[in-house]
Amino acid sequence: MKCRKCKAQAAVALPSHNTAFCPDCYLLFFRSQVERTLHKQRMAKAGSPILVALSGGKDSLALALQLHELGYAVHGLHVDLAIPDYSALAKQFCEKFCSTINVPLTIIELREEGLAIPLIKSRIKRPICSVCGKLKRYFFNKFAVENNFPVLATGHNLDDEVSRLFANTIRWDASYLSDQGPVLPAEAGFARKIKPLYRLSEFEIANFCFLKNLEHVTAACPYSPKASFPVYKSLWNKLEERMPGAKIQFYENFLRDGRPVFAAWAEQQTDLEPCPGCGYPTSSGLCGVCRIRKMVGAGVNGPGVSDLDSKQAG
After folding, report:
1. In angstroms, rounded to a whole number, what is the distance separating the alpha carbons of residues 156 and 136?
2. Which one of 4, 25, 41, 249 has the minimum C-beta count within 10 Å?
């Protein structure tokens, strides 16, 4: 197979695009995909500061590297979950990466917040992946707002977005469907959020990391085996094999035809109010993180943890 651009021997085949590239042309393709997404979706002004949520995995590090190479002022933010062995390794990769390309990195330690994931898992009988994700979103957003970053970028890829859309559609969860998309606007208490990799698959990002020799965490989180998203991803990968392009078609059609309907519904719902505990926007009473703090401190299970603040869940 020949490279689509230069006709040299291809190294990466992309059935969903009906094309293939040599290593150099593939990196140009990847760069153009991110650059076009940033421009088309009006995600960020050229050269502007961007806070990038870093997990230590391939997606977030690839995003930070590409944004850095495009000339954006990248600032990394990592939330240390305090999961034995796994979290130390993730933080190590983030520190090494940011040091290598000379970008600032801030680390938030959940242990210091009294919210170490193992502690929460032992105290609260709710799906830990859901709680963990909501805690990370809380602290990413809090840091972005308090430090006046114009935009917060996450490494969500096409597979992530399709799996989440599929899960929300199975449940017909209108509150989540109303704000799923590559750009979430800034609102009172919420930073502007963007997902520049939303059109790129895990396979495409993995190829970028390989060609860039970008080191990242490869081990799965020890708490993830019961997570539902890997099941959805597996289903969609099988469909993509039979019908190349199915993922992006499903997602783009939702953005065009489905999201506006749910967004109109969301505008009629209850307005958010500041949490009396921390000031974070919430629909009623204490926000999800303050409820977690309360339950962890009390050492008891309680209602509402799995329904933490759906607005701008991102």
Report:
1. 14
2. 249
Q: Within 13 Å and on the Cβ side, how many CA atoms surround 204?
A: 27
Nearest-angstrom CA–CA distance, 311 and 185: 12
Residue 69, class by beta-carbon neighbours within 10 Å (0-12 exposed, 13-18 middle, 19+ buried)? middle
Which DSSP letter does residue 17 get?
A: G
C-alpha to C-alpha distance for 84 and 64, rounded to whole angstroms: 26
CA 11/CA 204 separation, integer angstroms = 12
Report residue 25 as tokens: 């042309």
Q: Is 261 within 8 Å of 89 (Cβ atoms)?
A: no
The count of other CB atoms within 10 Å of the CB of residue 152 is 24
For residue 55, give the 3-state DSSP assignment. Answer: coil
How far is Cα of residue 9 from the mean position of the Cα atoms in its chain?
34
Amino acid present at 142: K
Tell me which of 3.40.50.10470, 3.40.50.620, 3.50.50.60, 3.90.230.10 is the CATH number of domain 23-213+228-233+246-272: 3.40.50.620
Looking up tokens 């019961």 gives: 226
Band the pLDDT of 28: cuts 50, 70, 90. very high
The percent of residues in the chain predicted with pLDDT above 90, rounded, is: 74
Residue 61 to residue 54: CA distance in whole angstroms: 7
